[in-house]
Design brief:
heterodimer, A: alpha+beta, 19% strand, B: 14 helices, 3 strands, 4% strand, globular
């Protein structure tokens, strides 16, 4: 240290700092002494005890899965319930000979040994001694076998685990959805209290409302003995069951619609136009969610996914179909509202229209003769709408279609909702980098060409016409209740937009839709219900463009049948859309009778349709609007 | 650069040997901690750790080639560059274990928050080297506080409470060693202590349920018997069951039966303690103590204030992390994610600490150059 004071710089180390270094060294000594003391305490003083505990380390975390919430229909009928069941649980750490135990387990459970091995290898991050589910929902024979052969099956135990139960099977399967084991990706996505092996909603409301339904798993810190029997519970966090949902769905109507659609592929959606409540949502073909609840087998899943009829898809919100003539309601609304035509504007139909070097057919080869709007809707004349479409232009058509809820998400709380397509000039440029061709407008005017919509959107359009222009969010959950019965959320009607339609427009369109059903010339007369005025519109949509015809088989070449309707014409209480996929027949023949059965049931099943909350339900503005509206049954 | 023979005659041997001894034990323990059934030879993690240590040793020697005083001029640049990297993490970062901390660069995955510790030491050493010496008032602590807070907030948001705490204690150590009176600092702290009970409930109300749970568990691990509380119990069992001589290398049952959480990072000490017992732990603690004391000795011999503070800053990283980590795994302190320096698995941390050792050697070897 002799050289220390040879050079004096301006940054010389001040003696003050040297003093602090001594203090620092003292602090360091004290800290290390504390740590060393702690180590002495743990390793020497209590070392023997800790060694014992490590050798008999039987402190385990046992998870107590929470029961998912129960789901009721609007009248309190249980749509999704829980039932007790047993899972076969395997704790690998407890097994001396893993292979032998799994071989025995496979034998008693009637499972493939290889499958069990895969399942045991499955979970990557598993806390020690947390059991792996070998088989969910063991049947009673399996339960008896496991109970009686405990000696062959060390480390295998039965655990009570509530299972989802869907008492009505396939009924409403797509809306209800299903549950499955939480996936590795879902586990990695953000914070959640899910653990491998937990059940999570995978589709429908089970998925969309999972946060409300799933509750919170509890757990116990348990000390077990050498045979892994529980000695005592050291600490416990109780599980918290999920919230219960009360839907707006009407189980009775759902069943009628389901039966009416029968074996056909398609969808039925019924809304309450006064508030957007979903009364019916059917999609065919359906699957049985109970299969998922008990743990779907690999082959069953492959069969479902590879089925060409796509039973997993919810056609009501994911099926995008050309709306055909039902789209004329949007075109007529736009044409009247903008003043391009008035109700008296007439065109002549000779069975088709020559335009731009192409002949556009009317569905009636002989033609409809000269007619005004009312008759053109009632008899669904294509040529009339070719003319109207040309005058209105594709951008105005698109504008009104969107006001009526097409081409945009409906806002329903379901995963993977499709929006359909409402083309306009901008869309064409974006999509194909091409200008719009005038001839394409003609196809659009009759709901063909690029136009597609989902059945839910068509029901929404119908509801908007019925309620005077208000676009409500389709809601199928009315109430969320905590397990103790306290209401956590009550859903009021959610008006997303107003179509801003002139009263005269609505009146003319509704009058025409009424006569589609109520007059003998109408295309939808099969939807008539005794004693009730029904308004509707039929549609028969070409499933594929002519250029693709050759590639399709006979079935998928067949037309889709549509029917949209609301009733009663005065003060509508229900708006419905029916789609029968590849029906090959006219909408009025196939789809209208389905709507008819739903109306029939709704209006005849009792003097007062079940409205458990009628006194407290907020009076919707739509109802008032109708009250002052003059009768619409006068001919135009 | 002019080569000076005195660099060889004054080569600092003790510090790098101590650092490499700790790193070697660490790599050995990572090997044991990540060794799973059916795995032959070292695990990929152990191999990667060794690669980082080799690279870190190279970097430690490379740091010796230039005069550390050049760093004083560039401390601000280093700080800003590392800060930019840190701010890029939420945008380009990679998730791991529920937080976003890493940036992937080709085969490397680096953790900018580790580099921030070193950058903070540099910039604070420069700050106090340029402040007039002598007992300082509370105002001298203001800028260091801001320099610490700017990186600590994004680190906290990753979320990485442990690293944020380390940044805070580094800054606190530097402020005190830089000459700010304890009394002054206490005066600054008083308003916060008074305000906390007033603001606390307001902030609390705006937190999400799981955030509240995390804080509660942090304050009291026993409140979460299935999570952190369980981990502390298992960690204590692991440490204690090592007894005097340990269960032997690769023989830790707590480790190999997966009772320990994060057994190759934050809880690696439990693995070591279980396998090497009280004797092994004393050796390891002695190594850390020697490392820290050697740092203090080097600091006391340095010729300029920047050098003193630089060495003390690096030393404080090692000291605090070692004490907090061992305190946490033995149940003395609440569980926060702080790795054991040079010992836990983690490339960025090992690299930074070895570079830090290189800087301390640099200061030690150039003390006669003035």
């Amino acid at each position: 240290m002799a050289s220390r004071n040879v050079y004096v710089t301006s940054r010389e180390v001040p003696p003050e700092l040297q003093r602090r270094l001594v203090t620092t060294a003292l602090v360091v000594f004290v800290a290390f002494a504390l740590v060393a003391g702690r180590l002495w305490y743990l390793q020497v003083d209590r070392g023997g005890e800790m060694r014992d505990r490590s050798e008999n380390n039987r402190i385990r975390i046992v998870r107590l899965p929470a029961a998912r919430g129960v789901v009721y229909d609007r009248n309190g009928e249980i749509l999704i319930d829980n039932r007790p069941s047993f899972d076969a649980i395997f704790v690998p750490e407890d097994a001396r000979d893993r292979r032998l135990v799994l071989r025995n387990a496979a034998h008693y459970l009637g499972e493939d040994e290889q499958t069990l091995h895969q399942r045991v290898r499955g979970p990557k991050k598993r806390p020690p001694y947390e059991g792996i589910v070998l088989r969910r929902d063991v049947d009673w024979q399996g339960v008896v076998a496991i109970e009686t052969h405990q000696l062959d099956l060390p480390a295998v135990s039965l655990q009570v685990a509530p299972k989802r139960y869907y008492p009505f099977g396939t009924l409403g399967a797509h809306l209800l959805g299903y549950v499955g084991e939480v996936s590795d990706r879902e586990l990695a996505d953000g914070p959640s209290d899910y653990r491998p092996g937990d059940l999570r909603g995978k589709a429908g409301l089970e998925s969309a409302w999972d946060e409300e339904l799933h509750g919170r798993a509890g757990g116990q810190q348990v000390e077990a003995d050498a045979l892994s029997r529980r000695v005592r519970v050291l600490a416990e966090v109780p599980d918290l069951p999920g919230s219960n949902l009360t839907l707006t769905l009407d189980r009775d109507l759902q069943e009628v619609a389901d039966r009416a659609l029968g074996p056909a592929d398609g969808a039925v959606v019924a809304l309450d136009p006064r508030n957007g409540e979903v009364l019916v949502m059917v999609s065919h073909p359906a699957y049985d969610p109970n299969v998922f609840a008990r743990g779907i087998r690999r082959d069953e899943w492959h069969t479902l996914v590879q089925d060409k009829r796509h039973p997993i898809a919810n056609r009501a919100v994911q099926g995008q179909y050309p709306p055909g003539s039902t789209f004329k309601i949007a075109v007529a609304t736009g044409a009247l509202d903008t003043g391009v035509i008035n109700p008296a504007t007439s065109f002549s139909c000779g069975g088709g229209l020559q335009f731009g070097g192409h002949y556009f057919h009317c569905w009636r080869k002989g033609g409809h003769g000269t007619m005004a709007l009312h008759a053109a809707i009632v008899e669904s004349c294509d040529v009339y709408f070719y003319q109207v479409g040309q005058r209105l232009g594709v951008d105005k058509i698109a504008d009104y279609a969107r006001r009526l809820g097409l081409g945009i998400p409906s806002g329903i709380r379901l995963d993977h909702e499709k929006t359909g397509t409402i083309p306009d000039t901008q869309w064409k440029r974006r999509r194909f980098n091409q200008p719009w061709f005038a001839g394409e407008t003609l196809s659009v005017a009759i709901g063909q060409g690029y136009v597609t919509a989902t059945p839910l959107q068509m029901a929404e359009l119908t509801a908007i016409i019925a309620n005077g222009g208000i676009r409500y969010r389709p809601q199928y959950v009315r109430r969320v209740e905590a397990p103790d019965g306290t209401v956590k959320r009550d859903f009021a009607p959610d008006a997303l937009g107003d179509a801003h339609l002139k009263p005269a427009t609505l009146e003319a369109v509704r009058a025409a839709m009424r006569d589609v059903v109520m007059t003998d010339r109408g295309t939808g007369k099969k939807a008539r219900v005794v004693g009730i005025e029904v308004a509707g519109k039929t549609g028969t949509a070409q499933a594929v463009g002519e250029e693709n015809m050759a590639q399709r088989d006979a079935h998928s070449r067949r037309d889709h049948a549509w029917f949209i309707a609301f009733a009663p014409v005065e003060n509508p209480e229900m708006a419905i859309a029916v789609l029968v996929e590849h029906a090959g027949e006219h909408g009025g023949t196939v789809a209208a009778p389905i709507a008819q059965q739903v109306f029939q049931r709704y209006f005849t099943r009792g003097a007062t349709p079940p409205e458990p909350e009628a006194p407290t339900a907020p009076e919707s503005p739509a109802r008032e609007a109708h009250a002052v509206r003059p009768p619409t049954d006068h001919p135009l | 650069m002019r080569f000076d023979r005195r660099l060889i005659t004054h080569f600092e041997w003790l510090l790098p040997l101590l650092a490499l001894a700790v790193s070697g034990l660490g790599a050995l323990t990572v090997y044991s901690a990540t060794h799973g059934p059916g795995l032959h030879g070292p695990s990929p993690l152990a191999v990667r750790q060794l690669t980082w240590l080799a690279g870190g040793t190279g970097a430690m020697l490379a740091v010796l080639t230039f005069d550390y005083r050049r760093l004083e001029r560039n401390a601000g640049v280093v700080y800003v560059l590392v800060l930019l990297m840190l701010l890029a993490v939420p945008i380009v970062g990679r998730m791991g274990g529920g937080s976003r901390r890493w940036i992937t660069m080709g085969p490397l995955s680096i953790q900018p928050s580790e580099f921030m510790k070193l950058a903070l030491v540099l910039v604070l050493a420069r700050h106090f080297a340029r402040t007039p010496p002598g007992p300082l008032g509370p105002r001298a602590a203001l800028l260091p506080f801001v320099l610490m807070l700017v990186p600590a907030i994004p680190v906290l948001a990753q979320p990485d409470l442990g690293t944020a705490i380390v940044l805070a204690v580094i800054a606190l150590s530097m402020v005190l060693l830089g000459g700010v009176r304890v009394r002054s600092l206490a005066a600054v702290a008083v308003p916060f202590v008074v305000l906390a009970p007033l603001l606390g409930p307001v902030v609390w109300k705006h937190l999400k349920h799981h955030q509240q749970q995390r804080i509660l568990t942090f304050v009291n691990p026993e409140a979460d018997p299935l999570g952190a509380g369980y981990h502390v119990i298992q960690s204590k069992i692991a440490v204690g069951s090592g007894m005097v001589w340990g269960k032997g290398f690769m023989n830790g049952t707590q480790n190999h039966l997966n009772f320990l959480p994060e057994q190759h990072t934050d809880f690696i000490f439990s693995v070591f303690a279980e396998e090497w017992g009280f004797v092994g732990c004393l050796v390891l603690m002695a190594l850390y103590l020697a490392l820290v004391l050697r740092g203090i000795v080097i600091a006391s011999r340095a010729r300029d204030r920047f050098g003193v503070l630089l060495v003390l800053g690096v030393t404080s990283i090692v000291f605090w992390q070692a004490v907090i980590n061992v305190g946490m795994t033995t149940g003395l302190l609440p569980v926060v994610g702080i790795p054991l320096p040079l010992f836990s698995y983690g490339g960025s941390s090992a690299l930074c600490l070895l570079v830090g050792a290189g800087l301390a050697m640099n200061v030690a070897m150039r003390r006669y150059f003035f």
